[in-house]
C-alpha cells in the first residue's frame, strides 16, 4: 500500500507553472529524496504535500485518505524545516511538548512521547536547556524531535541540514538514517540540493527540473544509468566527463570524436535504441584508471596531465586525451606532476551515451 500518492499534481502562480502533472507513489516505510537545483520545485512539492500550498490541479493521498484540501494539522504528517524555528523562551522539553499541549494530548502521553523522542535522538541531557544554550546540531535534533513526538506515519524534511557546517551535516545525516531504520514503518520525504545527502539517505531519488521529475529510481540506477544528460551531470562529484562525438553503428560500433575512437561492443544500449549520428559520450572520473590499472581495459590511450588538485585521500587529475579534456581520480599518494604523459584507460561498458538532440540515454 502506498503511504503517499500524488496524482497529476500541478501548481501555477498566475501564468507561471511551477509543478507540472506530477505522479508519485511513495511506499510505506520508504525514504524518498526530492533532489534538484534551486527553483526546480522540490520544496514547493513538499509544501503541497504538507498542505502549506493549495494546488492548482490533481490529488494527494496519505495512507489511502484523500487529503488534497485538508488542513496541515489534519494530514497526519510531521515536518522539519530548514530553519529550526524553536521558541527561544521555552526549554527543549517545552518546545517538544508545545504542539501536543495545543492538541490536548494527556500529560502522561506527552511525557511518554518526549522520553521516546529524546532517547532516539540522544537529547535527554538537553531537555531543561533553552535553544540559545544549544549548538546548531543540537537545535536541529530538537526540531526533528518536535516532529517525532507527533507520532505520525509520514515525515517531511525541507533541507534540514543546509544551515550546518560540513562536519555537523555528516553527523546529522547518519542520525537521520538511523532514525529511519529505527522507525521501520515511517515514510520519509526529504528535500535537498546536496547529492551526497540524496545518495546516502535515499531508498529512491526523484531528480527534479523545471517542476517535473526527470528520473525516479534507486541511487545505484541514478548513478550508473542516468536517464538523460541532465541527470548524469547533476549526480556525481567531480562532474562526469562529457565529449561530443559521432556514433558509428556496424558490426563493431564505436564513438568517434576527432582523434578519439572508443569501441562500444561492450556498451549496453537502452530501450531508446541507437542510431548513427551526433551523441554525447559520458564517462565518470572514478571509472578512469592509469598505468597498470589500465592495462587490461578495452580502451587505452595516452593523456597529458594539465592540472592536479590534491584532495587528501584522492587527487583529481585534469588531463588532455586526444584533444579532449578528461578528469579522473587517483590515489592521494600517487606521484604525478603537471606535464606528465600517462597511460589511461576505461571500460566503455560503464559509460553513458546520450542523443545530442534529445539528450536522452541511448
UniProtKB/TrEMBL annotation:
Q: Which SUPFAM superfamilies match?
A: MOP-like, P-loop containing nucleoside triphosphate hydrolases
Boundaries of every ABC transporter domain copy: 4-235
The lineage's top-level taxon is: Bacteria
Q: Which Pfam families match?
A: ABC_tran, TOBE_2
Residue ranges of the TM segments: none
Q: Name one GO molecular function term.
A: ATP binding
Q: Which InterPro entries match?
A: AAA+_ATPase (IPR003593), ABC_transporter-like_ATP-bd (IPR003439), ABC_transporter-like_CS (IPR017871), ABC_transpr_MalK-like (IPR015855), ABC_transpr_MalK/UgpC-like (IPR047641), Mo/tungstate-bd_C_term_dom (IPR008995), NA-bd_OB-fold (IPR012340), P-loop_NTPase (IPR027417)
Q: Which PROSITE patterns match?
A: ABC_TRANSPORTER_1 (PS00211), ABC_TRANSPORTER_2 (PS50893)
Q: Which CDD domains match?
A: ABC_MalK_N (cd03301)
Keyword list (alphabetical) reads: ATP-binding, Nucleotide-binding, Transport
Q: What's this protein's family per the entry?
A: Belongs to the ABC transporter superfamily.
What name does UniProt use for this protein? Sn-glycerol-3-phosphate import ATP-binding protein UgpC
Native organism taxonomy? Bacteria, Pseudomonadati, Pseudomonadota, Alphaproteobacteria, Hyphomicrobiales
Q: Which gene encodes it?
A: ugpC_5
Amino acid at each position: 500500500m502506498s503511504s503517499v500518492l500524488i496524482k497529476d499534481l500541478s501548481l501555477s502562480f498566475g501564468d507561471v507553472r511551477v509543478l507540472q502533472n506530477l505522479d508519485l507513489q511513495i511506499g510505506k516505510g520508504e525514504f524518498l529524496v526530492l533532489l534538484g537545483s534551486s527553483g526546480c520545485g522540490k520544496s514547493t512539492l513538499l509544501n503541497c504535500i504538507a498542505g502549506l500550498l493549495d494546488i492548482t490541479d490533481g490529488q494527494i493521498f496519505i495512507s489511502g485518505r484523500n487529503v488534497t484540501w485538508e488542513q496541515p494539522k489534519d494530514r497526519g504528517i510531521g515536518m522539519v524545516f530548514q530553519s529550526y524555528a524553536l521558541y527561544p523562551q521555552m526549554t527543549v522539553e517545552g518546545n517538544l511538548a508545545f504542539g501536543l499541549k495545543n492538541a490536548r494530548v494527556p500529560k502522561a502521553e506527552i511525557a511518554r512521547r518526549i522520553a521516546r523522542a529524546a532517547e532516539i535522538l540522544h537529547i535527554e541531557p538537553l531537555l531543561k536547556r533553552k535553544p540559545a544554550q544549544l549548538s546548531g546540531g543540537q537545535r536541529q535534533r530538537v526540531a526533528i524531535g518536535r516532529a517525532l513526538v507527533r507520532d505520525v506515519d509520514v515525515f517531511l524534511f525541507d533541507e534540514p541540514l543546509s544551515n550546518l557546517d560540513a562536519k555537523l551535516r555528516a553527523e546529522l545525516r547518519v542520525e537521520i538514517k538511523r532514525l529511519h531504520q529505527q522507525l521501520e514503518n515511517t515514510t520519509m520525504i526529504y528535500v535537498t540540493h546536496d547529492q551526497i545527502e540524496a545518495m546516502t539517505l535515499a531508498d529512491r531519488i526523484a531528480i527534479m527540473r523545471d517542476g517535473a521529475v526527470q528520473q525516479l529510481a534507486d541511487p545505484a540506477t541514478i548513478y550508473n544509468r542516468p536517464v538523460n544528460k541532465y541527470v548524469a551531470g547533476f549526480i556525481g562529484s567531480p562532474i562526469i566527463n562529457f565529449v561530443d562525438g559521432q556514433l558509428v553503428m556496424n558490426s563493431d560500433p564505436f564513438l568517434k570524436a576527432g582523434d578519439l575512437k572508443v569501441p562500444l561492443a561492450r556498451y549496453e544500449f537502452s530501450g531508446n535504441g541507437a542510431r548513427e549520428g551526433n551523441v554525447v559520450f559520458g564517462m565518470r572520473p572514478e571509472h578512469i584508471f592509469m598505468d597498470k590499472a589500465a592495462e587490461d581495459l578495452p580502451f587505452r590511450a595516452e593523456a597529458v596531465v594539465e592540472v592536479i588538485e590534491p584532495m587528501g585521500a584522492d587527487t583529481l587529475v585534469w588531463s588532455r586525451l586526444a584533444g579532449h579534456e578528461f578528469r579522473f581520480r587517483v590515489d592521494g599518494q600517487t606521484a604525478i606532476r603537471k606535464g606528465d604523459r600517462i597511460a589511461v584507460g576505461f571500460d566503455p561498458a560503464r559509460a553513458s551515451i546520450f542523443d545530442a538532440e534529445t539528450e536522452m540515454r541511448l
